[in-house]
């Protein structure tokens, strides 16, 4: 690696021949009269799901899906931004220290890619007027380390986050990580909230820390106090989730989200699953290429509608200005009806999110009684508390489900012909990478092919070993989603045809995500993977089973893989909490570590991720159904409905725009 960010970043979807067309109504700037008019205008946005709590908007404590990212991007800025080279149709995140800055101007690695020294942009304030500094990043990461969801995701990956002065923050990773800045651009830990947003409070020198945070001026004592917050991950964090002092933090209930982003969300501006009102941040730091302060539009209202048909109906009835839609049933209709105001990311230069069935391969709940616990079952019932299905723990049944589903029929019925990766074959998806990707294994992954005969044979073998019982399990589905109802009905019929009984548990999106996080399911509809770098897969595949878990002062423990090989808890002390499928494979873990350490595009990195894909295909923790094709559609008077620039206000950004949008550059004519 040379330079200060990541040189020559390659897209996972290499070889896509058609450049992304952003449409004539994207990438335009308003006239001065339009700017003035938009200050008092309202943009109406329809999304499919909501976050569950106010502090759930934050990157440190949120549980964000695609819709959640759309909302979070309005309140928060990401630390970095992934760029886009239209001529080459590839993602580009760097090349020199100022290529795609946002809240961070640069990220410089140590020789072994474990220490990343980052320069923080000067002159940025939160929407409440308080200065944004390196200290805010440390405080936000302390809250993240302490969070019982986000903390388990990042603790195996980060050793510490500290500041050296008000504009320099240092991330130390647990392993060599050649593409770490991508995480600061694409993942939610790149969203930095003002401390009062967070649930809980700082328990270390709160008075000193608050005084210096609010002034932006730091003494040596203040820096030392802040650097005690997360020097060694969860084991030493200075955040107390149950505190109520409200000195630094939002106390026992958390506060409303305060960020540096283009819009604000006040305490009375959001009602769960009903919608929100985002108001223009008049002090937003970012200017467009003409020097006009963003955002253009004065207000954005959101409406939550999980049913994709209803989303489309809102748009055609002109009850919405913009919708974000992932349903192939309506994409051809939107393309025809809205033409220049329709964008779909079919040929975008990144690996798309994979739509799948995810299995709880251990059949166990991870979390009970406030502590991680691998011995407590809790998967299959409607309330997520009863013992899970034995069937899903057996790879034969998982393979049988994969072989029972005709993906050509599924694509034509559920996705309306939008085949994965733009292919046309019934087996077009057999892994997490596009077949055109340099990470796709030569000759395929070995994923089970469609065969009802083969599926029946596997079921018969399982029944022989299980007292001739019928393999039975439940599938978690989103209540009110017509697309998932259609998908479930097709899968249920396919499974029944080969001798497997499945039933649906219909719940809202937030509950579905929560049950997946805490492993309270047999099988669930899910979307995962994707991104501009395969290193982003790592967090989902930490696959070491915990003997016990170190955290919040617990004694150190070891983690073991399925072969009994121990790994030190100091390196892997949360042991796969966000490996929601609980897929344990030590060989895959070794390949993931190798892929993380090697520079993107190198032979070693590519071969490592090819082997990861083959192991997933053999063990079938996921039954692949397709890839998420993301679309935005808007009324014809909306401009920049799927468009954003980097911190300079000029350079085209890849994220946020195509799959998520912060709407800072959207305006009405």
Note the topology.
Blueprint: H1 32-38, E1 42-47, H2 66-75, E2 82-85, E3 90-92, E4 104-109, E5 115-120, H3 134-146, H4 150-154, E6 158-165, E7 168-173, H5 180-186, E8 200-202, H6 206-215, H7 220-226, E9 239-240, E10 249-251, E11 263-264, E12 270-271, E13 275-280, E14 299-304, H8 308-316, E15 322-325, H9 328-338, E16 342-344, E17 354-359, E18 365-368, E19 371-376, H10 395-404, H11 407-413, H12 452-464, E20 472-478, H13 482-497, E21 501-507, H14 509-517, E22 523-528, E23 545-546, E24 558-560, E25 566-568, H15 569-572, H16 586-597, H17 603-619, E26 622-627, E27 631-634, E28 638-639, E29 653-655, E30 667-668
Parallel strand pairs: 1-14, 1-15, 20-21, 20-22
Antiparallel strand pairs: 2-3, 2-29, 4-5, 5-7, 6-7, 8-9, 8-10, 11-13, 12-13, 13-14, 15-27, 16-27, 17-22, 17-26, 18-19, 23-24, 24-25, 28-30
Give an overview in words.
There is one protein chain. The chain is an alpha+beta fold and 669 residues long. The protein is built from 17 helices and 30 strands. Among the domains are: 58-272, Dipeptide-binding Protein, domain 1, CATH 3.90.76.10; 354-542 and 577-626, Roll (Dipeptide-binding Protein, domain 3), CATH 3.10.105.10. The strands form eight sheets. Strands 1, 11, 12, 13, 14, 15, 16 and 27 form an eight-stranded mixed beta sheet that branches. A five-stranded mixed beta sheet has the order 21-20-22-17-26. Helix 8 (308-316) runs parallel beside helix 9, helix 10 packs antiparallel against helix 12 and helix 16 runs antiparallel to helix 17 (603-619). The protein is globular. Mean pLDDT is 79; it is low at 1-22, 93-99, 366-387 and 544-575.
């Amino acid at each position: 690696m040379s330079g200060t960010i990541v040189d020559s970043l390659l897209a996972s979807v290499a070889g896509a021949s058609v450049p992304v067309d952003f449409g004539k109504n994207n990438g335009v700037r308003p006239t001065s009269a339009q700017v003035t008019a938009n200050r008092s205008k309202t943009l109406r946005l329809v999304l499919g799901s909501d976050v569950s709590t106010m502090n759930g908007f934050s990157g440190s404590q949120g549980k964000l899906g695609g819709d959640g990212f759309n909302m979070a991007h309005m309140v928060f800025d990401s630390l970095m931004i992934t760029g886009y080279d239209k001529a080459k149709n590839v993602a580009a995140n760097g090349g020199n220290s100022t290529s795609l800055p946002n809240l961070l101007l640069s990220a410089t690695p140590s020789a072994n890619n474990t220490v990343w020294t980052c320069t923080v942009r000067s002159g940025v304030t939160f929407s409440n007027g308080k200065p944004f500094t390196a200290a805010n990043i440390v405080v936000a990461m302390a809250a993240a380390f302490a969070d019982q969801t986000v903390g388990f995701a990042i603790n195996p990956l980060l050793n510490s986050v500290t500041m050296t002065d008000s504009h320099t923050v240092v991330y130390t990773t647990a392993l060599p990580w050649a593409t770490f800045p991508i995480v600061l651009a694409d993942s939610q830990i790149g969203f930095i909230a003002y401390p009062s947003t967070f649930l809980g409070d700082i328990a270390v020198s709160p008075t000193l820390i608050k005084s210096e945070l609010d002034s932006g001026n730091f003494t040596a004592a203040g820096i030392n106090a802040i650097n005690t917050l997360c020097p060694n991950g969860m084991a030493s964090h200075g955040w107390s989730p149950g505190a109520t002092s409200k000195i630094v933090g939002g106390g026992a209930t958390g506060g409303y989200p305060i960020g540096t982003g283009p819009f604000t969300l006040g305490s009375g501006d959001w009602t769960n699953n009903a919608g929100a009102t985002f108001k223009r941040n008049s002090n937003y730091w970012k200017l467009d290429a003409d020097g006009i302060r963003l955002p253009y539009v004065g207000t954005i209202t959101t409406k939550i509608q999980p049913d994709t048909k209803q989303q489309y109906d809102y748009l055609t009835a002109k009850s919405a200005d913009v919708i974000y839609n992932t349903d192939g049933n309506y994409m051809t209709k939107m393309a025809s009806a809205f033409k220049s105001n329709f964008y779909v990311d079919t040929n975008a230069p990144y690996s798309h999110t994979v739509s799948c069935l995810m299995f709880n391969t251990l059949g166990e709940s991870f979390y009970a009684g406030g502590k991680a616990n691998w011995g407590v079952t809790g998967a299959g019932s409607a309330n997520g508390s009863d013992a899970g299905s034995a069937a899903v723990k057996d790879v034969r049944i998982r393979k049988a489900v994969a072989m029972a589903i005709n993906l050509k029929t599924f694509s034509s019925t559920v996705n309306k012909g939008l085949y994965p990766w733009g292919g046309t074959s019934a087996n077009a998806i057999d892994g997490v990478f596009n077949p055109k990707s340099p990470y796709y294994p030569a000759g395929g992954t070995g994923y089970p092919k469609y065969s009802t005969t083969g599926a029946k044979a596997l079921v018969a073998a399982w029944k022989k070993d299980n007292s001739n019982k019928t393999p039975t399990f439940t599938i978690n589905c989103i209540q009110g989603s017509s697309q998932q109802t259609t998908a479930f009905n097709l899968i249920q019929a396919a499974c029944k045809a080969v001798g497997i009984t499945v039933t649906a548990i219909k719940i809202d999106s937030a509950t579905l995500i929560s049950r997946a996080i805490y492993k309270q399911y047999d099988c669930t509809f899910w979307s995962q993977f994707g991104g501009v770098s395969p290193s982003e897969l790592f967090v989902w595949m930490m696959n070491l089973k915990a003997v016990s878990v170190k955290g919040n002062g617990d004694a150190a423990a070891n983690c073991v893989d399925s072969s009994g090989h121990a790994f030190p808890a100091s390196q892997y002390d949360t042991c796969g909490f966000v490996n929601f499928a609980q897929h344990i494979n030590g060989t895959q873990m070794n390949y993931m570590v190798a892929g993380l350490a090697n520079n993107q595009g190198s032979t070693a990195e590519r071969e490592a991720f090819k082997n990861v894909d083959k192991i997933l295909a053999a063990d079938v923790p996921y039954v692949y159904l397709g890839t998420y094709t993301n679309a935005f559609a808007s009324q014809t008077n909306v401009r920049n409905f799927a468009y954003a620039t980097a911190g300079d206000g000029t350079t085209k950004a890849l994220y946020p725009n195509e799959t998520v949008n912060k709407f800072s550059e959207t305006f009405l004519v």
